[in-house]
Design a protein that fits this description.
Elements (H helix, E strand, L loop, with lengths): L1 E5 L2 E3 L5 E8 L7 E7 L6 E7 L5 E3 L7 E6 L4 E6 L8 E8 L10 E2 L3 E5 L2
Amino acid sequence: VQLAESGGGLVQPGESLRLSCTASGFDLHLYAICWFRQAPGKEREGVACITSSDGKTDYADSVKGRFTISVDNAKKTVFLQMSSLKPEDTADYSCATTGLRKVIADPIHRGQGTQVTVSS
């Protein structure tokens, strides 16, 4: 199982960014895929989850209405579209397989992560 994130970077408050998570080595339908983030000195937070079989999603309250998770099954890639970014969204973002499509689920397999920095 391998997960590779990309798309992180430095943006200003209010701007948008799209993260990608490309999966390999397993059938995407076997797991839910979630995005997690962790800022220095803070606990890991589940941000958004999706099941590729039905496209159903779950979001943390802190990102509802601003972030959108989606999947391209043909490319085995899960996206996280982030809009109206705030400085408090600054964190290392990683994608992971989970057993449940819930942001409170624990990761099973996890990628290396990509840094998102929101600053003026």
